[in-house]
Design a protein that fits this description.
about 300 residues, alpha/beta, Rossmann fold, 5-stranded parallel sheet, 9 strands, about 40% helix, about 15% strand, binds phosphoric acid mono(formamide)ester, binds norvaline
């Protein structure tokens, strides 16, 4: 049966294995030992929103594995508008061996995956960003080793990236403390699910409104934009609500002395993070960005059942 990656939960039982595979494949790539199992295969990438990392990391990664990647920009397919999600899924399945979809609506990703006959990978929607979580935990494992008992602190919006990190941390037994203002907390149902998983792996999940409480003693500090793609009309109210949620050196200094700083990027320097933190030696944001490619190569290999 074909497999998809719509939510981190779709790879729950092999999350750590995929991270380990990504680290192995990164090493193979650096040694010039890439395998080419996707020779003659095509990845179709459908974007409803802009992208730097996701577009390039999927295209370069799939090419390294021997295949060809096709980029469809926001104006092209217009899923659900020009043509139904069902019909797009059926047509793409006749051409593509794998589909990556960046969407506004999570329900469209779910539906595309349901009707497509080839694996569908969520390249970010309004609910989750599972590929980001794979790369992020891969980066944390590279730097910190075993993540059990370590603490990841999130400061900012209870958004798609946080949702995927909540699942990933719970699965890996890593504690997660998130500081989000009132009205911007993560989804209740997803939080409950993450806590359920955390109770099995011995991790704790704490949601607070206090950034200092979240980062105190943490191993990893994580920031994302206050204004996600699709939220642009709320810019004014959001900037007001997130006043005090910026990661600056003062806040960073409350974490462990060897704590690292992470950001999925794009960063809005001077908003959610200062230049000083972004450019500090403990910022690992570009290693994290690179790992998007290695993580996704491992995901694609795994979904195709090749390793
Ligand atoms: N982090 C991330 O997904 O970046 P892009 O929006 O540039 O793809
Ligand atoms: N939360 C951000 C992540 C961008 C990679 C957004 O959805 O725009």
């Amino acid at each position: 049966m074909k497999r998809d990656l719509v939510s981190v939960l779709d790879i729950k039982d092999e999350f750590k294995e995929i991270i380990d595979l990504a680290i192995t494949m990164k090493g193979e790539h650096k040694d010039g030992m890439d395998i080419v199992p996707f020779k003659g295969k095509t990845l179709v990438m459908v974007f409803e929103k802009p992208s730097l990392r996701t577009r390039i990391s999927f295209e370069v990664g799939f090419t390294q594995l021997g295949g060809t990647a096709l980029y469809l920009s926001p104006n092209e397919i217009q899923i659900g508008k020009r043509e139904s999600v069902h019909d797009v899924a059926k047509v793409l399945s006749r051409f593509a061996d794998m589909i990556m979809y960046r969407a506004f609506e999570s329900k469209n990703v779910v539906e595309l995956a349901k009707h497509a006959e080839v694996p569908v990978i969520n390249g970010l929607d309004n609910v989750e960003h599972p590929c980001q979580a794979v790369a992020d935990f891969m980066t944390m494992v590279e730097i910190k080793g075993d993540l059990k008992g370590r603490t990841l602190a999130w400061v900012g919006d209870g958004n798609n990236v946080l949702h995927s990190l909540l699942y990933g941390a719970a699965i890996l037994g890593m504690n997660l403390k998130a500081a989000c203002p009132i009205g911007y907390k993560p989804d209740e149902e997803m939080l409950t699910k993450a806590k359920e998983i955390a109770s099995e792996t011995g991790a704790s999940i704490t949601i607070t409104e206090d950034p200092v409480e979240a980062v105190s003693g943490a191993d990893v500090i994580y920031a994302d934009t206050f204004i996600s793609m699709g939220d642009e009309t709320e810019k004014g109210s959001r900037l007001k609500a997130f006043d005090g949620y910026q990661i600056n050196m003062d806040l960073f200094s409350k974490a462990k002395p060897d704590a690292i700083f992470m950001h999925c990027l794009p960063a809005h320097r001077g908003e959610e993070v200062t230049d000083e933190v972004m450019d500090s030696p403990r910022s690992v944001v570009f290693q994290e960005a690179e790992n998007r490619m290695h993580g996704q190569k491992a995901v694609m290999i795994r979904l195709a059942g090749l390793r």
